[in-house]
Amino acid sequence: MKILTIVGARPQFIKAAPVSRALRKAHREVLVHTGQHYDANMSDIFFEELHIPKPDYNLGIGGGSHGQMTGRMLEAIEQVMLKEKPDVALVYGDTNSTLAGALAAGKLLIPVLHVEAGLRSFNRAMPEEQNRVLTDHIAALLSCPTQTAVENLHAEGVTQGVRNTGDVMLDAVRYNAQLAQEAKPLHKTLAQLRVLRGKSAALLEDKGYYLATIHRQENTDAPDKLLTIVEALNELNHPVIWPVHPRVRERKEMARLGDHIRLVEPVGYLDMLMLTGHARMVLTDSGGLQKEALFLGTPCTTLRDETEWVETLEGGWNVLAKIDRADILAKATRAVDTRNGTACSAFGDGNAAEKIARMV
Ligand code: UD1
Ligand code: UDP
C-alpha cells in the first residue's frame, strides 16, 4: 500500500518517528511536511535526532492566520495527492496541518487514518478542538490513544474503523528515554542549553528546577494571561527552565521575567526527555508534555481550565491550574505522593506504532 503521511508541527514529528519506522516494514510511505513549523530547532532537529526519513515534499507553508494557513495547505496537499495517488492518507493530532491533510484526502475520496483520534477538550474556542472534531468525522480509520478517546467518538456516533491502539507517545518515550540517558548526562544537557534570558542553567541539579513550556493560543494571545503566568513563575522558590516556543519569545510580557527563570531556545527531543525526567515538576499547557511527565514520573501542573488527557489527573500526578497567580503557585508547590508511582496503563503497552501500521 502507498501511504501519504502529512506532518507539519513539532509534536507530529515526534509521533511520526515510531509510526514511520513500523509502516515502512510493509508499506511505501510518502512523507509530506507542510512547513507549519520551520525553525531548525522546531523541525530539522527532530528529523535528524529521531532518524525520520527526509520528507518527499516540503510545502513551505508556515505562519499566517488559521484560515490562510489551512487554505494554502489544502490546495498544496491536494496537488501532491493528485500526483501520488495514495491508498491512504495519514494525519496526526489536531493542528492546521492535520485538518488540511484530512480535508484534502476526504474530498478526493482517499481514506484517512487519524492517529490520536477521539481527544476532546469540549472547548470549541480552541483551534485544536475544531481541527480534531472535523478530522475525526472525515477519517475512515481512527487510532485512539485511550479508551476515553474511543468513548468520545462513540458519543458522537463515530464507531466504524475505531481502534484503541494505545498512545504512540508512550512508544516515543520508551524508545528514546534510554537513548537520552546514554547520549548525555544531565549536567551536560544543562550546560549546553542556549540561554536567551536569565542566569546560566549549568549548575542546576536533579529535581532542583521546574520545567515550563507555554504556547497555547488561549494563554499567549491574551496579554493579561501571559503576564499572570510570568508573575507566578517569578514567585516560585526554585529556578525555572523554559524552552520558549517562537510564538511567545518576543512578547513584551517576557521582559518581566525574573533572573531565576532561564529562558532557553527550544531543545531537541532527547534533551527534552532529560529535562522532563529530572525536573521537580513540569508546568505546561502542552498536550504531549503532560503525558511525558507522567510516563517519566515527574509531577505536572497544567496551566489550563481543561485537559484532553484526563487519565493524567488520576492520583494527582497532573493537576489543572487556572490562570491565576495564587492558583498556579498553590498547585506548583503542592506535595505529590510519589510512593505508588505512576499508572501509564491507560495509554497502552508502548507498541501503538505496530498496531497503527496494521490498521492500513
Ligand atoms: C501549533 C498547533 C498546536 C500545537 C503546536 C505545537 C495549530 C492551530 N496549532 O501551534 O495545536 O500544539 O503547534 O507546538 O495548528 N513560529 C515560528 N517558527 C516556527 C513555528 C512557528 O516563528 O518554527 C511562529 C510563527 O510566527 C507562527 C507562530 O509561531 O505564526 C504560531 O505558529 P503556529 O504553527 O501557527 O501555531 P503553534 O502555536 O505553533
Ligand atoms: N518538546 C521538545 N522541545 C521543546 C519543547 C517541547 O522536544 O523545547 C517536545 C515535548 O517533549 C513533546 C512535544 O514537543 O514531546 C510537545 O510539543 P508541543 O508542546 O509543541 O505541542 P502539543 O503537544 O501541545 O501539541
UniProtKB/TrEMBL annotation:
The keyword Nuclease does not apply. Residues 25-359 form the UDP-N-acetylglucosamine 2-epimerase domain. One of its GO terms (molecular function) is UDP-N-acetylglucosamine 2-epimerase activity. Keywords: Isomerase. The keyword Cytoplasm does not apply. InterPro entries: UDP_GlcNAc_Epimerase_2_dom (IPR003331), WecB-like (IPR029767). It comes from the Bacteria. Its EC number is 5.1.3.14. Belongs to the UDP-N-acetylglucosamine 2-epimerase family. This is UDP-N-acetylglucosamine 2-epimerase (Non-hydrolyzing). It comes from Luoshenia tenuis. The lineage of its organism: Bacteria, Bacillati, Bacillota, Clostridia, Christensenellales. The gene is wecB.
